[in-house]
Amino acid sequence: MRKYFYTFGTDERFPFSGGWITIEAPDVTTAHAVFRALYPDRTPGVLNCADYYPEAVFMETGMFKGNRGAGCHRYVTYGEALHILPHIEITIDGRKISALPQTWRQAYDTIQNCASVSPFARAVAVGPDGKRREYTTNGHRAVAAR
After folding, report:
1. Contact criterion met (CB below 8 Å) for 26 and 77
2. Distance CA 64, CA 115 (A)
3. Which of 75, 81, 82, 115 has the smallest set of CB atoms within 10 Å of its CB?
4. Which residue from 28, 64, 72 is spatially nearest to 47, judged by alpha carbons?
């Protein structure tokens, strides 16, 4: 897992004044999605921070010693990130897999694909709104669990 550092400056609208947060993620796209879920863009398409760095570059900046009088405000592990991001936990024939869809439609399509493989799939999807939806397969079709 890689570490990404999101730094803050003096803009009063940033979530923090100085310092940074650290996010563990497999790639920068996932790290950005986690950051945006925690601290939404003020301007669409622009992260709500001063800058971001992969770990090696961040260490070269010297900011790890302190950034504008502040240090690390939050450390988000990948396990925690999975509960922040929309995701699906699927059990197929006793085997667990995970997926990170960006929309409910992608979540449903992923579950449908699993249903076509096994009539014994169960899935829990956590969407962008944080709500949980449970699905089970009925034959080869996913249906909402009640």
Report:
1. no
2. 47
3. 75
4. 28
